[in-house]
Amino acid sequence: MYAYDELDRTLINERVSEFRDQVKRRLSGELTEDEFKILRLQNGVYLQLHAYMFRVAIPYGTLSSKQLRRLAHVARRYDRGYGHFTTRQNIQFNWIKLAELPDALSDLAEVGIHAMQTSGNNMRNVTSDQWAGVAPGEIEDPRIWSELIRQHTTLHPEFSFLPRKFKIAITAAEHDRAAIKIHDIGLRLHKNADGETGFEVLVGGGLGRTPFIAKTIKPFVSGRDILSYIEAILRVYNQYGRRDNIYKARIKILVHELGIEKFAKEVEEEWKAMGDVGLTLDHAAIEEVRSRFSYPAYEKLPHMPDELKQAAHDPLFERWRKNSVSAHKVQGYSIVTLSLKPVGGPPGDATAEQMDAVADLADKYSFGEIRVGHEQNLALPHVAKRDLPPLFKALDRLGLATPNVNLVTDIIACPGLDYCSLANARSIPIAQELTRRFANHDTADLIGRLHINISGCINACGHHHVGHIGILGVEKNGEEFYQITIGGRADENAQLGTLIGPAVPYAEVADVIEDIVEAYLALRDRPEELFVDTVKRLGVEPIRERVYATR
Amino acid sequence: MPLVKQGRITTDLFVHVADGAELPGDGAVLVTAERFLADPEALLRRAGKVGVIWPNNRNLDDLVPHLDRLATVALVFPTFRDGRAYSQARLLRERYGYDGELRATGQILRDQFVFMTRAGFDAFEVKKDADADAFAQTMKRYSVFYQPTGDGRITALNRRMQLRHSESAGQ
Question: Pfam families given for it (chain B) (predicted)?
Answer without folding.
Answer: DUF934
